[in-house]
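Reopening: structure tokens for the 3,4-dihydroxyphenylalanine complex, inputs below.
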Amino acid sequence: MKEQIDLIVKSLEDKMHDGLSLNDLESLRVAYLGKNGLLTAQMAVIKTLSNEDKPKFGQWINEAKQAIETKISDQKNFLLIQAMNAQLEKETIDVSLPGLNFKKGSLHPLTIVTQDLEDYFIGLGYKVAEGPELELDKYNFEMMNLASDHPAREMHDSFYVTTNTLLRTHTSPIQARYMEQAKGEPIAIIAPGKTYRRDPDDRTHSHQFMQCEGLVIDKDITFAHLKSTLLGMARHIFGAERTIRLRPSYFPFTEPSVEVDVSYITAEGKTEWIEVLGAGMVHPNVLEMGGYDAKVFSGFAFGIGIERIAILKYQIDDIRQFYTNDLRFLNQFKGVL
Ligand code: DAH
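Re-run output (same inputs, fresh job):
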């Protein structure tokens, strides 16, 4: 009986060779150990044996079963390791190959100007504030002392969404919002962002553009603070040799109000002036509406057009260049900041 079992094991050994696939090995396993397998069939013999012989026979069968299992699974493992090694071999990386060259983008010129302003003013201790682009009439106009008959309130000058919400026409409403939440504390902020007006688009106008607002409120803020701040900003942006000229102007939210020109030297060596922003001392009505006692507090504010700065700084001839995403234009700003 033992010989019979040994023969079965031996017959498997004869069938094993290196060329067998995983599938072949599985078929062999079924042929020997499956429900109708060669070794399994030997189990039937047990019934014919005496109680004395049964355990011995059972032990032989078990040993044979283990021998067969081990042989087949060893060969399976060998094949799996071989396949894995082949795969690893195939996937080795040649570290000396040249790398992939990813195309790097660049910052948009309007982002460059905005970040430059932020850096400058953060260095002076200002905070950067934000406000919603969809603004309430209350903040865009009312709290900025823009009377109800002000032309900007006309439907044809602004994008109204409902009767009292519109796309903000300037960044000035951020002043009002900030004052409201500062609850009488001193303020020093700049607030850059997008603004909208119903201007037909052409070389110098865009229905959407960017501004940066500035607001400082404290006790004893004077016009001299405004002037030195504007001069510092102009020199930071355009160069230390520049100077500024203030012209009296009118804005409902400042009194007195000025328009600010920056000097430049023409090709002929003449000093000329170019207007860059509006500014002034915060109007007492604006202070009061924002929760500040105008007899105790004073402040200055300014509003600067981001596109205008970029146009002057980088000599751009058409404001629409900023919005059309032409790579020939945008690629020129690689590495500027
Ligand atoms: N909001 C003004 C505009 O859009 C710009 C401006 C002028 C803002 C004077 C100010 C300021 O804060 O003081 O034309």
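The first strand starts at residue 127 and ends at 128. The pocket of 3,4-dihydroxyphenylalanine is lined by residues 170, 172, 213, 251, 254, 278-280, 301-303 (CB under 6 Å). Marking as resolved unless the reporter disagrees.
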